[in-house]
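In response to the reviewer comment on reproducibility (Comment 2.3), we provide here a single inverse folding case reported in full, input and output, so that an independent group could reproduce the run without further information from us. The structure tokens appear first.
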């Protein structure tokens, strides 16, 4: 692709706030020009997020009437790992979220403990890189409240979310990561309810991330553990997420 084409596409992306209207996470990640644009998007995101839209801002929230009749289920929708099948068979009664890594106070929390954390309910729009959106009402534990309890050690920079599923036929576990700034944001949740009911398996039961100022692929479903780290070097392919290891931007700001 010529520099001119690349620049035009980046300009168009900047105009839409970086949201792509394209199809197929999968096939796109293998297309070199797309990978290229996503890496250029890093720079774009830096500019867009830190100059045009301050990252500290709140994502838009919607009214009850705006909720989509059906919230699409995308990516993995029914994890097949034996670990997950066992948990699902018992309606997640034995589920325990492990929080560790560079923290003073590692914790194991069952769903009752997670539901007892300070919570928030918000109606937001989910934007997938494949070009669809859905509005839903999420309730979950505020990640900043959990961080207060585990107490990240000095030098802790990122939170890595390890998931129960292997995406498609990849035979590698889905994972994602965010920085401390997004982790402390008031709208960042470990969500357990969607539209007033327990999160369906298709949408990430029993626990999924909501990080509202970023694209859908950042919102890890089926979270099994959270690891606080100072770098991604020894995690997965070293790029901070399943799709990042396949060329997507780490900061997927919208
Ligand atoms: N564990 C896990 N999390 C995931 C995915 C996945 O395949 N596995 N897909 C991501 C993508 S690309 C999107 S758009 C959203 C879809 O969330 P939904 O199923 O609630 O619509 O989950 C994200 N989180
Ligand atoms: Mo997505």
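Designed residues, in position order:
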């Amino acid at each position: 692709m010529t520099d001119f084409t690349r620049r035009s596409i980046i300009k168009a992306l900047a105009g839409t706030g970086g949201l792509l209207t394209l199809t197929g996470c999968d096939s796109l990640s293998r297309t070199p020009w797309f990978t290229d644009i996503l890496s250029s998007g890093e720079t774009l995101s830096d500019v867009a997020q830190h100059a045009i839209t301050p990252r500290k801002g709140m994502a838009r929230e919607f009214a009850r009437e705006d909720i989509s009749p059906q919230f699409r289920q995308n990516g993995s929708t029914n994890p097949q790992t034996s670990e997950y099948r066992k948990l699902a068979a018992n309606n997640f009664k034995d589920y325990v979220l492990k929080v560790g890594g560079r923290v003073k106070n590692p914790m194991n929390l069952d769903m009752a403990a997670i539901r007892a954390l300070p919570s928030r309910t918000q109606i937001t729009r989910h934007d997938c890189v494949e070009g669809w959106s859905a509005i839903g009402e999420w309730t979950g534990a505020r990640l900043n409240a959990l961080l207060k309890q585990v107490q990240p050690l000095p030098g802790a920079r990122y939170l890595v979310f390890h998931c129960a599923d292997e995406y498609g036929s990849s035979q590698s576990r889905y994972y994602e990561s965010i920085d401390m700034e997004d982790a402390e944001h008031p709208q960042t949740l470990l969500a357990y309810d969607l539209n007033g009911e327990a999160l369906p398996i298709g949408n990430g039961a029993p626990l999924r991330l909501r990080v509202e100022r970023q694209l859908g692929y950042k919102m890890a479903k089926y979270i099994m553990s959270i690891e606080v780290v100072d770098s991604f070097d020894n995690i997965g392919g070293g790029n901070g997420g399943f799709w990042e290891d396949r060329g997507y931007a780490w900061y997927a700001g919208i």
